[in-house]
Every structure is written in structure tokens, then in C-alpha cells.
Amino acid sequence: MKPRAILIVLLVGVLSVGIPLAWQQLVTPRIDTARSALQASTWLSVLPADSYDNQPLHAALPLTQPQLEHSRLRGGYRATLHGRTAAVVLHSETAGYEGPIQLLIAIDRDGRVIAVHVLHQEETPGLGGKLAEAGHPWLGAFSGRSQANTPQSAWALKRDRGQFDQLAGASVTSRAVIHAVQDALRYFDSHAAQWLAGEAHE
Predict the structure, then answer these.
(1) 95: exposed, middle or buried (C-beta count within 10 Å: 0-12, 13-18, 19+)?
(2) Of 76, 80, 85, 141, whose CB count within 10 A is highest?
(3) How crowded is residue 172: how many other Cβ atoms within 10 Å of its Cβ?
(4) Which among 148, 152, 173 is positioned nearest to 163, based on CA atoms?
(5) CA distance readout (Å), 166 to 106, 120, 180, 199
(6) d(CA 74, CA 55)
(7) Which pTM was predicted?
């Protein structure tokens, strides 16, 4: 093979490898940024937009003994406003009817539920799977609830003498979520003194 032909082959080889690598280096940061933005918009949807001024997902809370009575905490994040804790978002996992259910549970500094969002579920479509629908009214029943304003016995379905309606056709799913939210509130209450240490209460 002539030297010129060899040079051309080598050049084509270098370009065929170099161009994809260069392209990957160019687009990877943008993809990562877009992915992070999507995660933030999903995970922080449980918090009112004007209720914090930090980046909660960059403010992870240390979680000791994350295995709870009915669920397990996979993570916790602090939302602050003017340097003061405004809320905590707990990432919880519990066992549903068909598989694990992952929840995001936002709790204000006074121990009240702000909102609950289903991050992942494998429940039966049309039944327990309805929890994944954005803004499902059943999840709204937890807003404002706390250990202080909801008795221990109330954390159950009405059919079990509690205060919560059942998600139609999904009693196992409903009970799992109720227990996971109560677990999260208990955990918050037991760690609030540590998380709010040094902050003045209104």
C-alpha cells in the first residue's frame, strides 16, 4: 500500500474514533444538566416553589437507623429559607401489593405533612397504580397531618377504624402508604431537635 493511502486510512481511523469522542465530551455535560434539572423538578414538586431558597437535593441529611417499622428511608433533604430550615423531604420505600413503592414525603418544620408524591410504584394499573397520577386526590388527605393532630389509632383505613379512605380496590396499597407516611412523621419528630438545633422557633 502506498504511503499516501496508508496516511488516508490512518486519518479516517483517527477521525472515526475522535469525532464520536469529541461529540460525547460536548453533549455529556448537557445531558447530565438536563437529567439533574428533571430530577429536581420531580423531587421538589412536593415543596411550594417560594418556600425555599437553597438547593435541597444538595443538602442531604444524615439518616441514622433508616429501617422503620413499616418502611425504609432511602434519603433525606433539607429545604431552607433565609438560612432557616423550612422543610424536610424524606425519600421512603415501602412494600406495596405488587412491589416496592417509593414516596417523597415533605414535612414542614412543625412536623406537618406538606405533600406526598409517588416516585416509583409497580401496583396494578387502574387500582393501586392510580397513585402515580399527578395530583391524585387520595394523597392530598395527608396534607396538614402530623403526629400531634392525628391520633395513633387514626392512622388506618376507615374500614379498620381509622380516618383514611381506601384507594378504590387497593387496600394493601393504601395501608402501605398510610404506614409509610406515619413512619416518616415519627422519624421527623424523633430527629427534629437535631435537625433544627440552633434555630429560633416562631
Answers:
(1) middle
(2) 76
(3) 17
(4) 152
(5) 22, 20, 15, 39
(6) 18
(7) 0.79
**What's at 71, amino acid-wise?**
S
Q: 183 burial class (0-12, 13-18, 19+ CB within 10 angstroms)?
A: buried
Grid cell at residue 93: 420505600
In whole angstroms, give the CA distance from residue 95 to residue 51.
31
The set of long-range contacts for 32-37, using a CB threshold of 8 Å and a minimum separation of 24, is: none
Distance (Å, rounded) from C-alpha 197 to C-alpha 94?
A: 29
- Residue 101 CB contacts under 8 Å (≥ 6 apart), including other chains: 93, 94, 95, 118, 120, 121, 122, 123, 131, 173, 176, 177, 180
Confidence of residue 121 (pLDDT cuts 50, 70, 90): confident
Tell me the average pLDDT across 119-145: 83
